[in-house]
Amino acid sequence: MEFDAVLRRRRMHRSFTDEPVPIEEVNALCEAALRAPSAGFTQGTELVIVRDPQRIRTILELITTQDWLTNAASHQGLRHSQVLIFPIINQQAYLARYAEPDKAQSGMATEDGWPQPYWLVDASFATMQLLLKVVDLGLGASFMGIYYGAEELRKLLALPDGLHPLGILCIGHPSNPRLTGSPSRRQRRSTETLMHFEQW
Ligand SMILES: Cc1cc2nc3c(=O)[nH]c(=O)nc-3n(C[C@H](O)[C@H](O)[C@H](O)COP(=O)(O)O)c2cc1C
To answer: Which domains can be identified in the chain, with CATH numbers?
Structure first.
């Protein structure tokens, strides 16, 4: 797909059909994500991919509540997600990388030496590349934070200590062309009001 069209079409989808997403497309999504830049070429972001329908169901039940599902009608279609991808943050990988000889002078071998948490920056960049590839493949996805069941989820995904999901990507073939979520309630701010040339 043409690049500007990808940017224009990208939006969060919260409802999917039951059409499967083939493994080749899952691989292409992951490759797009993992091609993202990373601080010091640490390449600290890894991905956990869940395709088993029973595990998908269990995870979605774990990280939602009945109350939330009842109040978030637009999210009901998430239960048809065909793939879940968790971008995994590994802070320790960055501290170790910045303790290596070519980076040691940066003073970033400990957390308080970091002006920004690059482990989050890198995982976010990777996530964005994945979201763009989703559009390129004609799929839909939504990114959500994990508010409930985080500890049980860590166990279910067998995440080692110190590794955390940035959030959850629910992926499938979109089934609802209407806007859902915040954009259905809020206007997009015009670019002119958000651009500040030379100074704020
Ligand atoms: C960090 C982050 C967290 C988000 N968390 C949620 C969420 O928990 N639930 C949800 O439905 N959408 C979530 N979203 C999606 C935003 O609501 C959405 O990106 C925004 O409203 C703009 O809409 P669009 O992406 O469809 O253009 C999140 C987006 C980001 C970037």
So the answer is: 3-176 (3.40.109.10)
Residue nearest to ligand 1 atom 28, measured at CA: 144
32: helix, coil or strand?
Answer: helix
**Beta strand segments in the chain, E:** 46-50, 83-90, 140-144, 163-165, 168-172
Q: What is the pLDDT along the chain (200 residues), one digit of tens a residue?
A: 999 999 999 999 999 999 999 999 999 999 999 999 999 999 999 999 999 999 999 999 999 877 776 677 778 889 999 999 999 999 999 999 999 999 989 888 888 888 899 999 999 999 999 999 999 999 999 999 999 999 999 999 999 999 999 999 999 999 988 888 889 999 999 999 999 999 99
Closest atom, ligand 1, to C-alpha of 10:
27
Pocket, ligand 1, Cβ cutoff 6 A: 11-12, 14, 142-145, 181-183
